[in-house]
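thought: fold this chain, then report.
action: predict
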Amino acid sequence: MRTAPEMTRVWVEEIMGIPMSIHLVSPGEPTNTGADWAVRECFDELRDIDRVFSTYRADSDISRIRRGELAIADADSRVALVADACERAEQETRGLFSARWRGWFDPTGYVKGWAVEAASRRHLEPLLSAATAVGINAGGDLQLFTAVGADWRWQVGIVDPHDRRQMIAVVDVVNGAVATSGMAERGLHILDPRSDRPATGVASATVVADGLTQADVWATAAVVAGPVDRSWIAAAGSHTGIIIDSDHRVTRWLGTTMVDVEPTKDAQLLSGALAA
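observation:
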């Protein structure tokens, strides 16, 4: 008996100022499995989180807190939860990550990863009862799910920040999250909260972990730590990752084992080497 080919449905919307796409992989032709409703619920939850946490909306809770019009304790209940989580992240990263890097409470570096992971686990992961795999891509950061026993792997290309026409590695993921931080897309936008100066030594850092909350925090921490300090890897609890320094040096790790790769090596040598 022939096995039906896998079919993919994709939904795309702009939320938090970035494109977000949901990908559903199913055996055979797509059927009505409640996917449209689940996707709508996921996007709606992400929009609602943006309504509360956006730094661009004057009426958001975060903007009102910054202006001194609202206390964290009186804001949406999720704000206090995020504030506590950011404090823990700052402690765990030993100051490499902070929600007060601008001098006031701004959890932007935490909220996207946390929001995408929470919404996708609540609304998308249950679709695996009828689907092969489902995942969400939020501006290049991904939370990915695969059904138990399914012969499926997500292949995530990691772009070379020094030449965005090229991929420097391919990450194979069954269940997990991939987050990338660096200078390739937005320039020197990541500040070292310890010095209030731009982090310049790392061009790109990709972290693969169980959840996007964790992966996103540690990808940011990797950029701030710079090319000399790799001690954070032992504390990150990540599966694997890859760092490309501003001088083109490439470092990858599996668990806590690090390997330096000569920048002149063919990028294909790294393909498939980062599995989670």
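thought: worth noting. The longest helix spans residues 35-53.
final: tokens above.
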